[in-house]
Amino acid sequence: MTIPIRRVCPACGNQPVAETTYGPRGTVESWVDLQVSTDAYQAPYQVGFVTLSEGPRLFTRLESVRSRDQAVRLAGEPDRDTYWFVADPTTTPIGGQG
Amino acid sequence: MTGDAYVAGVGMHPFGRWPDASMRTMASEAVLQAVGDAQLTVRDIQVAYFANSLGGLLTGQESIRGQVSLHDVGIRDIPIINVENACASGSTALWLAIRAVRSGEFRVALAVGVEKMFVGDTQRTLSALQTAADTEATAGQGLQFVALYAMRLEEAIRTGALTTEHLAKVTTKNKRNGSLNPYAQFRKLMTEGEVLAGRPIAGPLTLPMVSAISDGAAAVIVTASPGSNGAVRVRASVLSSGAVDGLGELVVRRAIALAYEEAGIGPEELNVAEVHDAVSPAEFFRYEEMGLCPAGGAGELFDSGATGLSGRIPVNPSGGLSARGHPVAATGLAQISELAWQLRGQAGARQVTGARIAFAQNSGGWLDGDAAACAVHILEATNAA
Q: Looking at this predicted complex, what is its ipTM?
């Protein structure tokens, strides 16, 4: 996914803001199976909110998620600049209830 | 100090699937009805705010849509301002028209919203709707906004605040109201079983619960004096924008709080409400945001019958977005048309008895999980119907 860089902190309105790197791991906070296709994807597919291990939350496409608090990791096709999060059963959920 | 503003006339082109109608013909119909309702002529209009969201993508008329669409009814040598705020475009045009009148510079202002969504290619219409977001952030992600509603509703079901049955019941309530509304797109009654057996859309949501692709228009004349047609006074007019990360539509709460403050009233004084239910069960979130019930109490409020047509505070007597239809930029002004009819005692079989104070809430677009825009208007009947 692309998160446009902000010029001003949305919380306090101050400048400058610093760039930082997050991920690639997170925990599913909520998710849903979509049954309607879009230009980009054939239904069914999943989207939801992921809380990254560092704290920020993202609305993102998901893959193979079956429960809340599921551990996920970043996946993607960098050539197409397309990213999503996929269930990661090998990892203990971060901050979740396991 | 600003002057008063009145809703002096309203009009609609019925919502539905109209292959032979264009933005121009539908806007013309709504405007002429509203002008006639206000007992004025189009030459009395001094400024016009024209709301449309998707016409650039769907009809190719990217620029000067207002001038093009209003030319036929003779609105041409006055300021015409083209307004876009996704599903809140119509109420944004109203907000501007109210300010034009309150400022004292204009005595008669027009707000009109129109959308032509049936263009022979449903996928193209759905793709156009997805642009009501930060497309740089959502490009290629398949992020449909119905997912946000689905997740909030699943959470409410998981925590016991709502049941799947509630989702079906609020939809049948709104379909029943819509069946009494001659301007509604869907006028068929549905049973709870039929709603739940509908095509799955996302999580617990089925097709009958979601707002539909629609063609239609609505217009409102705003004046500085009450006029003679049982005019309706504007008690509050608020527009705000979304600014937070998260699952909730916090901008809706903020806009509602500001509107109550401006009107000097609270939720207990409302008699009727039209709210933005992009999916019918979103009405439950509005109950809480409006303060009609405590957090988690929406299901109980609904079960009490309070929001039904004969209840204490009927919500969406027009049928709401899933029954009336949702021609994006027309919706906010259709809400105002419905409430004006309700306050004047002209709502026919869906009339709310004795309504004096009416509430309208209209949201548009998505940004960071919040609605991108939200307008709230509170209206008051000025003389007995």
A: 0.83
B137·A38 Cβ contact <8 A: no
Residue of B nearest to A45 (CA): B142
Regarding whether B24 and B145 lie in a shared domain, the answer is no
Q: Tell me how far apart the alpha carbons of residues B73 and B31 are, in angstroms, rounded to a whole number.
A: 8
> What residues of chain B have any CB closer than 8 angstroms to a CB in chain A?
123, 126-127, 130, 134, 136-137, 139-144, 146-148, 150-151, 154-155, 199-203, 243, 245-247, 369
Which of A2, A34, A81 lies closest to B144 in CB terms?
A34
Asked whether residue B75 is assigned to any structural domain, the reply reads: yes
Whether B128 is covered by a domain: the verdict is no
The pLDDT tens digits for B196-235 are 999 999 999 999 999 989 999 999 999 999 877 778 999 9
Whose tokens are 């509630």? That residue is B166
Are residues B142 and B98 both part of a single domain? no
Q: What is the mean pLDDT of residues B241-252?
A: 72
The DSSP code for B307 is T
Establish if A49 touches chain B: CB-CB under 8 angstroms. Answer: yes
Parent domain of B28: 6-121+215-230
Quick check: A75 and A86 in contact, CB under 8 A? yes
**What's B201's domain CATH number?**
3.40.47.10
Q: Say how far apart CA B211 and CA B333 lie, in whole Å.
A: 16
Residue B126 lies in a domain: no
Active site residue B293: no
The rounded mean pLDDT for chain B is 94
CB B325 within 8 A of CB B318: no
State the total domains in chain B.
2
